[in-house]
Amino acid sequence: MTGNLERYAERHARVADVVTAVASGVCTVFGARISTSESAPPHALWPAWILVLSGVAVMASRSRPRAALVVTAASAAVLTALGYLPSPLLLAPVMTALYWLAALTDSRTVGVYGSATMTVLLATSLAGAPIGDDFTLRTVGTVLWLLLPVSLGSWSRLRRAYVESVQARAAHAERTREEEARLRVAEERMRIARELHDAVAHHMAVAHAQAGTAAHLADTHPEQTRQILTDLVGTTTAALLELRATVGVLRRTADPEADPLEPAPGLDRLPTLVAACASAGLTVTVDTEGQARPLSPGVDLTAYRIIQEALTNATKHASDHVARVRLRYDEARLLITVTNDGTTDGGAVPPVPGGGYGLMGMRERAHSVGGDLRAGPRPEGGFEVAAALPFQPRTPADAPAGRRHEETR
Predict the structure, then answer these.
(1) Using one digit for the tens of pLDDT, what is the confidence trace for 197-213?
(2) Has this prediction a pTM greater than 0.85?
(3) Where would I find the Histidine kinase/HSP90-like ATPase domain in this sequence (predicted)?
């Protein structure tokens, strides 16, 4: 009920203020005639019109609650000093002003103005009439009647603050959901970009090297050229299959009759990767230290993609066409090192315009499973990619601090 009245008052503020002022004035007229058996109201009623006129100040209670309370309290103090009984009807304008003061201001202001109002009205009420049976009405009654609007106004203020806080939390939650959705979309786009890069860039780099080698040997070594062209067909087929699998993930539905997707590659496909690099003219040696341990699917894919991208860079950049891959199984992580001893063709600038996403993608992959990766030129010449991956993925917050991001090659 109170909430409906408040909503109506908010929508029709001027009408509500006028009705309240008129009602408080009428109450004052009737309140001026109330008395007890021990006391009689003053014969002259014209002073009561002082408080009636002060009811006009009630219309300003919503915009100027402090000033409205001062005016109405002063008028009530004049009447109680003349001997009028401080009944709730007589104090209606003061109670209205107190309500709006408690509803629109802070607790400290309510305490100061409310205490001052009660003190003044108690003093004038006791001074305006002899002490009799109405002593309790003039003291305790006055305090209780004035505390009532203070309590209601404070409850209204707290309720309004609670509703506003709930609405603010709901708006914040909605913004958070939208931001989280945008973040997930961005992360998914980055993941798709890495998958497409890894699926296409390696095979295209190998195919480019195979085609160049075949063109160079076409006249002098036809048999070797035919073998390289056969390998080229296999390389492009593998590229198409990986691209199809990646796009298939995006278009896959819940249809149980849909074609099953090829499993994500892992270290078990490392021999095939080495063979493809060999057909492109890159000699790769693989050394394994420690006892091999099972890796989670995400870490296994990450390890394969890092080695794949490192060998792709070696195929394009290493002048000696030799690369070494070392896998070392520690107690809690897999250490991957891919090195070549040759000089690079122009340092860190990639030969393809807009390139450089390979090393960035490797770092993102390593960090996504809680690992670390560093890449850069070796002091003795050549280039090195070194990664440390946990056997089981960890969140980025659990990864070791103090990572150093080298410049992309």
Answers:
(1) 766 776 777 787 778 77
(2) no
(3) 301-392
